[in-house]
Prior knowledge:
Layout: E1 7-12, H1 25-37, E2 42-44, E3 49-58, E4 61-70, H2 78-86, E5 95-101, E6 109-113, H3 121-129, E7 137-142, H4 151-155, H5 161-166, H6 170-188
Parallel strand pairs: 1-4, 1-5, 5-7
Antiparallel strand pairs: 2-3, 3-4, 6-7
Helix pairs in contact: 2-3
Amino acid sequence: MTTWPPRLFVVGLGNLPYPNTRHSVGHVIVDALAARFGVHMSMNRSVGGFIGHSDVLFSDDIVSLTLFKPKPLMNIAGPSVASALRNTVKLPTSMVVVHDALDHKVKVLSVKLGGSANGHNGVRSVIDALGANADFYRFRIGIGRDRAVDPAEYVLSKMPPDELLHWSGVGLDRVCSELGKIASRNRAT
């Protein structure tokens, strides 16, 4: 009997016109994953974003990995994400949405399956586009909060070099570890 590798669809939320900002940390992580695994990303107009695919090794498991960066601004990216999901893994439980988390400490990754958008407009757009289906994983990436700065201004500020390095190094190792765990769960179901 042939077994197929588990499939993962990793979406990095962000705003293409604002690269390397705290709000675009999802894009930063998808770019780092693409670089680590040699995944070529290219624009796909039919799904509305940059997409790439490869079979990769997480721990000892081969995983069919699709990476996606929606072209629309984060707060209206849901339809693009839903379209790409339908054209790839199809199951929301095989999707991981990577996004900024203002109320989490800097450089902290928090994994969550399902639940509300918790005030994040990009996640809300994805849930709405999936017909209120919130059964997907979220990698909430801590960006911290500077209470002296307006939140809208803060999230659109550039990430400091140490944070960018973190998410291409040890932080990316943690992301890969968590993706491997999700792939293992998906293989078992």
